[in-house]
Write a structure and sequence with these properties.
About 45% of the residues lie in helices and about 10% in strands. The chain is α/β, with parallel strands linked by helices. The protein is globular.
Length: about 425
Amino acid sequence: MTHITIITVGSRGDIQPYVPLGMGLQAAGYRVRIATHDNFETFVRAHGLDFAPLGGDPRELIRSEAGQEWLESRSNPVAFVRGLRRLTRDVSDQMVTKTMHATEDTDVIVSSVLGLFAAVHWAEKRRTPLVVAALQPIQDTRYVTNSVFPLPPRWLPFQGTYNRLSYTLMRYLLWVVFGGQMNQIRQERLGLPRTTLRAWFPNASTPVLYGFSRHVIPRPPDWGPNARICGYWFLEEEAGWQPPPDLLDFLEAGPPPVYIGFGSMNTRDPEATLELVLDAVRQAGQRAVLLKGWGGISDAQLGDDVYSVDAVPHAWLFPRMAAVVHHGGAGTTAAGLRAGVPSILIPFFADQYFWAERVRALGVGPRPIPRSRLTAARLADAIRHAVSDRAMRQNAAAFGERIRAEDGVAAAVEAFQQLVPVAVR
């Protein structure tokens, strides 16, 4: 039986899509292990997959001073890469070692983009086929900007050239910041020769499976045959899960509320963020479901029109909302699109700006509000717009139907079987 190890690192939104992908591959007859941070072991094993620890706790990293500075890099790719280096400086070597153990008996390595920092070297060392499973576009194209780069203004000429250069520049930035460390690890730990900028990254012959919808990002015509846009990798609602009775009571007590949550995006002043959000809800005259994450929240602070939750499956909650307000992570954006309700995006940094612009361009959400410019008045205006704009609500509902009609996991499994000849069950 062919053994596949999926390597992925990051927050919950960076891990979760790879669980249904792994489940799909396992249902097709492969043996699948997910290698990721230790705190996700219970989550991975609960879905019937093997687990290998990579160490590190992304929650602690994000809460650190370096993590907060990284979140404040906004749409600046230079600051993003520098922040990533500072954030991972003390765990990079550990990750390489743990990736070695995780892939010892592996026939095929499947890696997320961040996982490639270790996976690409072990695939070379062991001559193991490597497949990239990406949640954002990573291959050169004239038609889509690199997701960490600012989108070009509409007046800029030669936008196709800008788009293609954005991928070249991102590789160069990563090489400048990480290349020396990676070559040291290759020589001293793996016994591999030094590599170059061009050779360090997967080439055109590397299979790349994309976990997003062609309706959100149409397939660029200048991508090669090894790039497959599969559709989103959704984790379906767990069997036996039941919502809290008081949440059901809240939903039934009035019109559909607005969801507000920023995932793992912590802020330096959580109390001020909470007050801003509650003020915006009051100004908009809406009820709200608020994801806990800004510290202690008391019922006295919330009042009768706001309900706070620790965690509720997006697939169950979002379709019951009038609109969803979130940070624009790839997974949360996908869940909002699938739900068929308008999305209001508050991007903090990196690819969140990219997804926020896609939501606006698709006509399923108002103009995004960068976190650095967020005020109660602006958020209230965006909520009123999303809830009252009939055309936007119709667009969101129709778009949700198209997303729900796709089976991204099945498409990814089929593409995997076509692109990886060694993967014989």
